[in-house]
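Q: What would this complex look like in 3D?
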Amino acid sequence: MRQTTTEKTTHPALIFWIVAGWVGFVLLPWYGVEDFWFMEWLTDGWPLDTDYAPALFLLLQGEKPWLWPVLPALAAPLLVMRRPKTDPLYAQILLAAGGFGFAWLIAQGLGIGIRGWNAGWLEALFGPLGDRQYGMGYGALIVASAFLFLFTQGIAARGAINGDVFVTGAIGGVIAVVTIFVFFPIAKMLLAAFVTEEGGHSVVVFLSKFFDDRIWGLGCLSGARCGVAWNSLFLAVLVGVLSTALGLVFALVLTRSGFRFKRSLRAITVLPIITPPFVIGLAIILLFGLSGTVTTWVADLVGMRPTRWVYGLPGVLIAQLLAFTPIAFLVLIGVVEGVSPSMEEAAQTLRASRWQTFRTVSLPLMRPGLANAFLLGFIESMADFGNPLVLGGNFDVLSTEIFFAIVGAQYDQGRAAILAIVLLAFTLAAFYLQRFWLGRKSYTTVTGKGDAGVHPEMPRGLAIPVYAVAAIWGAFTIVIYGMILYGSVVQLWGVDNTLTFKHYITAFAVRIEDGGIRWTGSAWDSFWTTMMIATVAAPLTAAIGLITAYLLTRQDFAGKRSFEFGTMLSFAIPGTVIGVSYILAFNIPPIEITGTGLILVISFIFRNMPVGVRAGIASMSQLDRSLDESSLTLGANSWQTFRRVILPLLRPAILAALVYSFVRAMTAISAVIFLVSARYDMATSYIIGRVENNDYGLAIAYSTALIFVMLAAVGLLQLMVGRTRIGRRMSHEQGGG
Amino acid sequence: MRTILVGASLLALSAGAASAAGKLNLYCAAQEEWCQVMARGFEDATGIDVDMTRKSSGETFAQIKAEESNPKGDVWWGGTGDPHLQAAEEGLTEPYVSPMREQLHPWAIAQATSAGDRTIGIYSGALGFGYNSDLLAANGLPEPKCWEDLTKPEFKGHIQIANPNSSGTAYTTLATMMQLFGEDGGFDYMKRLHANVNQYTKSGSAPIKAAGQGETTVGIVFMHDAVAQTVAGFPIVTVAPCEGTGYEIGSMSIIAGARNMDEAKQFYDWALSAEAQNLALQVNAFQVPSNMGAQTSDKAPDLASIKLIDYDFKKYGSSDERKRLLAKWDNDVSTLPQ
Amino acid sequence: MAGVNSRAASVVFENVTKIYGRDVVAVNDVSLRIEPGKLVTLLGPSGCGKTTTLRMIAGLEMASKGRILIGDKDVTTLPATDRDVSMVFQSYALFPHMTVLENVSYGLKFSGYSKSETRDRAMAGLSLVGLDGYGGRLPSELSGGQQQRVAVARALVLEPEVLLFDEPLSNLDAKLRRHVREEIREIQQNLGLTVVYVTHDQEEALAVSDEIVVMKNAAIAQIGPPRALYDAPADTFVADFIGEANLIACEIVSVTGDVAEVAVTGVRHSLPARGLKPGPATLALRPSRIRIVEAGGLAATVEKVTYVGPRMEYTFAGDFGQVFAVSDNVDTPYRAGDGVMIGLAASGPVLVPDA
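A: Here is my prediction, written as C-alpha cells for the whole assembly.
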C-alpha cells in the first residue's frame, strides 16, 4: 500500500541532512586538510589538534568563537523531526534554521580570512580580531550543504514547486554551486573593468575603455582593419551557421539515408573533438600553409607563387569548423532521431512530397536542436583561443586579445575584463536570439503513445548535396588525421621524414622490473592525472548538466531565465579568463582550493556543463510532459521519475554530455594553464610545453595516443549508456521486424 | 604591529607545516627541460622537495599577481626580465641580497639594483633574427645581415615579428630600435619594417617557429630561440645584426610572502652558482649564464662577437615608458597600410 | 478479481480556486463532494476548467485557494507522488522505453511490494484488462485500444483511493470507444472504485457516470445523476450540452404552486414551474421526446427528412423556429412538406431559466 505522507512523521531526506549537519560539525575537520583522503589526520592529533579539529572541538577549546551561532541553527531542525509536513511550524523552523545557518557560514567565511577581518569597516565596527581562519574543509562543506538542503526542504514544505523536496533541493543546490563556481569568480574578474589606474572604481573609465576604437573600429570597410569585436562576431556567426549545417548534414546521413557505413561515419564525425586543439592547427598549416602540401601543389598547377592565404579568417574558420562541427552533430543527432516518424508519415499522407515534408515538418521540429547547435558553435567560436592563436595571422579576435591583455607585455587586466564583457554581450545576444527564434511553439514529438513509424529518407534534391558535403568533409577529416598519425612516427614533421617510434618511446616507455610495472616514459605522470581528472569530472558534469536541463525545461521558478543564462557564462568566457578568475576567487578562504586536483575538476564541471544543459534541453523539449506526470501519479517521486523515465529517454543527450565533458577535460588548454600545479599537471599543458620546446614529434605522438585513448573511452561510454529501445524501427532496410 | 605579528606567525606556521626536509614551490618560466633539470638538481643538492610548475613568463606574472593575497609560490625562476621588473615595481616580489652576487656579471647585478634587489639576472640572450635558408634560396633573396636589410622592398611579406603589445620579445625589439636609432629614427625604422611584415604574432618565439616550418622567411626573435630551431633540425640560420642589438636578462625573484622563505633563499643562492648554471648545458639552452664561472654552450651565439648596446633596463623596463612607446607604436605604426 | 482490490475514498473540494499567473482563473471557487465508490464525470466544453480540476485532484496542479480532501485527509499541499491517486492520460503516457509489464509494474515498485508480488499484481492487472501474454511487448507494438488498456491496468494495479481519467477515449475509434468505456465502467463497478473522469463527450458521460459535474467558465454549472441532468437541466447551457435540446422561446403566463402556465406561439400548456416566475422563459425539447399529435400542438411543416437506419431524423419548422426530432417509426415516415402538429407531452418539454 502506498503510504500517504499526511500521517508520515519520519522524513528520510530531513533526517539525512540533520545527521549530516551534525557529523560535519562534530566529527569532520572543519578547515581544509591537505591529503584529506589519506586519512592521516585521524591519527595525527584529531580531534583536538586545531589544524584537524571539528568545529565543536574548536569551540570547546575556545577557538573560532564566531562559529557558535552555527550550533543553535543545527539544533533547531531537531524540533521538527516528529512533526507532520503540513504543520506550518515545520516549514518555518526549517526555513529559519537553514537560511540563517547558510547565511552565517557565508558571512563569516567572507568576513574573516587569513589576516583576520577581510574588510576595513568590519574592523572599525568590531575592533581588531586576534584570530584568523583558513580555507573551509569537509566539515564546513557538509554543514553548509545541510543548511542549504534543510532550507530547501522548508521551501518545499510551504508548497512551492508542488511541495517537491527533490526539485526544490536540486534548484537550491544547482543555484548555489553555479553562484559559487561561476558567478562569484567571474564577477570578481569583471570588476577589474571598472578599476582606474589609481585603483579606484569609475564608470567613466569603463565607458571610455569600452568604446575603444580598437574594439569597435570599422576600418575594414575602408581597407584598414576592423575592431576585434566585429572580427569575433563575424567569425562566430559563420562558424555557428556552418557548423550547424554540417552537423545537420551528418545527422541526416546517419538517420535518414541508406548509407552503409554509418558506424565509421559516426566515428569520423566525432573525431575532431577528441583532438588536442593545436594538432589540428599544425596539420592545417602543413596542408595549407605557405609551404603546405596543398598550397604548393595548387600554386604549381596554376603557376602562381604560394601565398599565406590560410592565415586569418580562412584558417581559423576551417579549424573551428573541424573542431566544433562534432558538437553540433552530437546535439543534433538526438533531436533528429527524436522527431516522431509518425508526424513525418502524417505529412506524407497529406500529399506532401518528401521535400515538402522535410521542409515543413522535419526541419521545423528540429528547431530546438538547430538553435542549440548554433548557440554552442557561436559561443565556442567566440571563446576559442588556440586556433586563432595558431592560424589567425593578423585577424585578431576577442579571445586572443583577452589572453594577451592578461599575460602580454601590457599586463592590463582591466582591458581583459572589458573585452570579456564585450564577448559576454555578444553571447547574451545570441542566447536571447535563439530563445526568440524558438518562440513558444511546442516541439514535443515523443509522447506517451507508442510510435512505430519509420523516418522517411531524405528527398533526392537534398540527398545529393548532403552526400557530397558529407563525403568531402569526411575525406578532409581523414586526410587531417592521416597526417597527424604520420607526423607522430617521423623524426621531424615536415623536415625529416624518416620513420621512427622514438617519440612514443620517450613518452610512454614502460619497464617491468621487480615484478611491477615502472612507468618510465616522460608523459605518464600527466597522462594518469589527466585520466583521473577526466574520469571524475565527466559523470559529474553530465549529471549537473542534465539535472539543470531538467529544472529548466520541466520546472518553473522565479529567475529561471537569468539562471539559464548564468549556466552558459563559464562556457562563454575564454578559458584563460576563467583560469585567472578562479585563482582570484579560490586562492583565499573561505574556499581555498588552488593547487589541488579539485580545482581542475570543478573548473571542468562548470566549463563543460553547458553542453549537457543544451543537449538535455533540446532532447527534453521533445518528451511529452504527461510522461513525467503519469510517473508522478503512479507514486514515483521526482527523483525516481527523472531517473527511470526521463534519463532512459535521454540517452543521446547523456552520451553527448559524457563524451564531451570527458574529452574536454582531456583536451582543454586555456583554463588549465593557470590551474595546473606541480602535482596536478595535465596532458595538454605538457604538450604545449613540448611544442614551445620544438618537440613537435613528441607532442603529436602524445596527442595521437590521447586520441586513441579517447576513442576507446567514447566507445566504452557508448556501450555503457546504451541505446534507448522505444520500438521505432530504425530505418527502412532494418525495419523488417 | 599587527601585520608583523601575523607575518611572524605565518612564518612559524609554514615552518611547522613543512616537513623536516623542507619543500619549495618553484614557478619556472623557462623551457620545460631546463625547469626539470633545475628542480631535480636542487633536490639532489639539498634534499629539499621541489614542486615545479612551468608556465610562460606572462602567465607566471599573471598568476603571481592573482595569488597576491595568499601566495602559493616561493621562487620565480627564469623568463625575460620585464615581467620580473614589473612585479618588483608592484611589490609582488621580495628584496634579497644574495651572498653569491660577487660571482655575477655586472649586467646581472645591474638588473638587481634597478629593481631594489627584488630580482636578479640569471642569464642573458641577445636579440637578432633567423631565416629559413631553403625559403631564402627559393625566393632568390640576398642573405640579410643587418636590421636595415630587413626593410628592403624585396623582403616584403617575408618578415614576421611578434606584436609588442603581447610579447616581451617584440617590446625589446622596439626598445632596442629606440636606443640604436633614437626615438624618431627608431619609429621610422619600425614603420619601414611594418611594410614588410606579413604577420604580427602574439607570442614572442612564434616567428622563428613559423620560419622553421617554412611559413615565413625571416623571424625576429632572441638569437637563442633561433639556435634552438637549428638544433631541433630546422633549416634556420641565426643572424646577429651588424648595427648592434639589444638583449634580455632572464631573471629570478623571490615571491613576496613566500611560505618557504628559507628554502626559497637557499634555491636563490644555489641558482646563481656556476654548477647550477652549468646545468643549462644538459638541455638545449643557449643563453649566456650570469655567473662568471659558468660555461656557455658552444652552439650559443658568441656574445663577444655581437655588438651589444648598453640597454637601459631601468628606463625601458618602467611601465610608464612602456605604455607610452606602445601607444605610439599602436597609433603611428600598426595603423599604416602594408 | 484476482489481486486488485478497492480502497475507494471520497474526494472533497472546499471553495477551490486555481489561478494561473496573475489573473487567469482556471477554476473559480468550486466546492463538490465525490462519494467513495462512485464514478463521477467532469463534463464541459474545452477551457471550462475540468482538466485543471482533475489535475488538482492528482496533485499535478496546486490549488491557489481552498482545500482538497481525499478520504478525510487534507491533501491540499501534497505533491502528486504523495497522494494515493492514479491517473490515465489522454495520450496514455506509456513509457516508450519500457515493456508493457514494466509499465504496469512501474508504480508498484514504489509501493513497497516485493519483486514477486509486484509481478503477480502486474500480471493480474494485465489479465483484468484482457492483455495476458502481452507483457513482453513494447507500447509501440500494441494497437491504440491495447495501449489504452495498458494505461488503465497501470493505474488500476496501484489500488488507488481515487482513479482519474483524462479524456481516455478520445484517441479511439467509435466502436472501440463504446467497448472500452463499458469495460471501464464494469471494472469500476466490480471493484467499487472511486473514479473521476474528464470528457467533453456528453454521450460518454451519460453512459458511464453515477454523477455528472457539468462545468462552464471555470465554475460548476450543475451536478447530478445523468437522468436528472438530462431531464431537468438547470439552465439552457446544460440543456444544450447534455444531449441535444431544442430551445424554444416561451412566455410563462402564470405560476400556481408548482405548475406554470406556458404560452408558445399562442398554444398554452402546463408544466412543472421549477421555481420560475412569470415572464419570458425557454423551453427545452429533447429530439427523442417530440411526439406528433393530432391536435393541440404547435403547427409546423416537415423541412428535412433523413433515414439513419434504426430511426428517422426530422427537422420541423414553425413560428417558434426550427426543432430537430428523431422517431423510431421508420416504416411510415413523413415526407418533406407535410404539415404536422408537435405535441407538448407532459414528460417532454422542460422549462429552463435563461443562462
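A: To summarize the key features: DSSP finds eight helices and 20 strands in chain C. Chains C and B do not touch (no CB pair under 8 Å).
Q: Very helpful, thank you.
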